[in-house]
Amino acid sequence: MLEDYGKGTLIIIGGAEDKKRECTILRKVVELAGGSKARLVILTTATERSAEVGQEYAKIFRRLGVEDLEILDIPDREMGQKESAVQIVEKAGAIFFTGGDQLRITSLLGGTALDEALHRVYKCGAVVAGTSAGASAMSATMIVEGEGQEAPKQNTVKMAPGMGLLDGVVIDQHFAQRGRLGRLLTAVAQNPCILGIGLDEDTAIVVYSSGDFEVIGSQTVTIIDGEEIKHTNVSEIQPNQGLALTDVKLHVLPAGYGYSLQKRRPLEQRRFAE
Questions:
Q1: Backbone angle region of 145, left / alpha / beta, with phi > 0 → left and psi within -120 to 50 → alpha
Q2: Whole-number mean pLDDT of the chain?
Q3: Which residues are known to be catalytic?
Q4: Which residue pairs from 73-76 have beta carbons closer than 8 angstroms and sit at least 24 positions apart in sequence?
Q5: What would the pLDDT profile of 246-263 be if each residue is shown by its tens digit?
Q6: Which of 2, 68, 84, 89 could staple 168 via S-S, CB 3.0–4.6 A?
Q7: Does residue 43 register a pLDDT over 80?
């Protein structure tokens, strides 16, 4: 688990990132992509408002110093197979997934030539960033639906295969703001070997090739580690019955802290890009 990292960097954003003031997270995308020399592709597959959303992010990234950028919409699987789309991704130093619906990302891109190109460039050193739905889709297994602000139950969450850029985790976004602790607990209960990562709004993790990640942004990241769960009734209860979990490990980390995915332990404030 979590042993094969690419040379690239993942920036996984909990949604509603600051776009007007400090722009801490989006500035980090630009910095790691090469600053003013960045070649950035904005991938709008997740949203049905591709033109509007793409132009919004293009305006922000240009303001942050990026001159070489392109908006790429993949409205159907046929487009994902085209060589012209593949070449756009292969030339990029950074790919940014907007928010929307994570099932649009996987159903339109999964198994296409563009999907394969995306994995290649990440393995070779590109930055891949995603916000909201673009964050959830990063993992091999993703949350696609679930009840927020409810006690954890067997039917609290529905999951599906994700893009597989990061193995061994399941990611939830808009975490504290939408009360999603219960559904992330349920996801971990169903497969305790995976780590649950809940990202608050305007908060992101930067996953380096070492397998360590750094927290940036204004809120916090919640990590649920179920590897040492001693008891759960998840396989026995009816859909609306309450979930039992004992000895679940939980970490809450603000900006400047981090986590080792290999060692499954938090990292206190330090330099992460070493």
A1: beta
A2: 94
A3: 132, 150, 174
A4: 73/43, 73/44, 73/45, 74/43, 74/45, 74/108, 74/109, 74/114, 75/45, 75/50, 75/108, 76/108
A5: 999 999 999 999 999 999
A6: 2
A7: yes
